[in-house]
Design brief:
This protein has twelve helices and seven strands. The chain is α/β, with parallel strands linked by helices. Strands 3-2-1-4-5-7-6 form a seven-stranded mixed sheet, sandwiched between helices.
Length: about 290
Amino acid sequence: MLEPDIKEFWSAHPCGDNIFGAPSGDERQDYEEFFSRYDAAKYRLESHIPACLDRLNVSGRRLLEIGLGQGSEAEQLIRRGARWTGVDLTETAVRRTGTRLALRGLPYEGLHQASVLDLPFPDGSFDIVFSHGVLHHVPDIHRAQREVHRVLKPDGELVVMLYARWSLNYLVSIGLLRRAALLAAHPLARVGALPAPRGLLGAHLDNARRIGLARYLRMRRFIHSNTDGPHNPYSRVYDLWRVRRDFPDFDVRHAEKKFLHAPPLPVHGLGSGRALGWHLWVRLTPHAR
């Protein structure tokens, strides 16, 4: 899996465009309406995020955000006093985040299109590196964490949200229900007993035909297509053992799970996600250089 494949996918599928569609034009009103609708939906679904950001104590500290999406967390962090710099692999995320911050009149120190594998900053530039839902999409995670370690100050902190392995979503929804649905639909589709499926099921059936059903259903492969859409090229899931393995230049300081989310199971809002949540928030400190 090469970084250009990751870049191509996220350039074509920015977070939220599948729900709201892209902003309809370049006018200020188009983007303002889009960002407002996106934020309202995002923080209604993931209502834990603002409180998690409150606990980071970012005021007055130089913070690098890796992976920007639509700029929602960038705005939240700046409003909490962070001296914010952002990087993203895609031009779309950089442009939209810049548009958001300009519309809202929010100050920041830098905004760059760049790879986490080659960050354009001197050693020891930041007090905090923050990345929400991004680093689990980076195949060369060892190189990425070395770059993060390099740009952090020795007493700095890395804060990441990673998809959780020990979660209802991974273990039951993805691991059992979605695989079983595909296993049942595949032979019916092959003999024409099932009307040509569209949407998610149709896309998964196309993947299975192209890759081979048995290979596609292996969890090492199936997980890529079940976190951010069936065409997502790469994802991984984490527990603390895997965090320590993949971030060897850091020590885990604190970890907690949030966001009980496991579609198609109707579980959202039924609990905090502390036991089986999909989002693993981890705070890490760098080893001495």
